[in-house]
């Protein structure tokens, strides 16, 4: 009976190199960025949350008062108005920016003449600061010499268009300026995504007789999912920190009708000299962002099954 000779497994080194020393130069170069993120951003956030439970006034001090600052915050009609305004501005800005930006990008993707000229025209407002944009649209929406005055000069004496002076419409006047400035960037992002679509897909859709609108809706848009996510993040970050446009156009008026959270924080921290209240409002803004971002990040990156 032949003896079975055990097969000797060769001592093959691991195919995977030591992960710790891979791209070592890149990891060393990223140390300052990691340090800044941990110390300034994370540390500053923790510091803000801690001092939001104090009665800090002109200078921060560790004199804890529990939830008093938060009770005052949510009892303030000014804060409630600011939350409502941000919600209205945020939802409408997301919808209109994405829709208008995508439609413009789809039109530009038809290989039209003078494409570079039109792209520059649409993108130019994004090069302006929010202060300049706000001042320009403050003039355009002024009833004395803006759009209303021009239209009435053509004979329509009953025409009324003064949203910045109407407490019920003022946030929509600010929205117009925001869309004018930001839609061009959305168009460029969408256009870059459309240019990345394989030309064979369009040819196949035309051969199969699929209408163009169905091609966009059921084929192109799902393929552009990463572009839409990137655009949403960019627009969302601008919505949360909305401040410059409001200050330039209305300074929060008429009354407190156009108040937004970022302006509320700034006014209490640097004008009312009430750091505790400003820290509480900042913490609520941070919590709101976390409630939205964390579940999305988990579903987007952590909830997928790894193959």
UniProtKB/TrEMBL annotation:
Q: Where do transmembrane segments lie in this chain?
A: 31-53, 86-108, 120-140, 169-194, 215-240, 279-299
Q: List the InterPro entries.
A: ABC_transporter_permease, MetI-like, MetI-like_sf
In what way does this protein cross or attach to the membrane? Multi-pass membrane protein
Biological process (GO) annotations held by this record are: transmembrane transport
Pfam families reported in the protein's UniProt record:
BPD_transp_1 (PF00528)
Q: List the Gene3D superfamilies.
A: MetI-like
Domain called ABC transmembrane type-1: residue spans:
83-298
- Report whether Transmembrane shows up as a keyword of the record: yes
What organism, scientifically named, is this protein from? Answer: Neorhizobium lilium
Q: What is this protein called?
A: Sugar ABC transporter permease
Family stated for the protein in its record = Belongs to the binding-protein-dependent transport system permease family.
Q: Where in the cell? A: Cell membrane
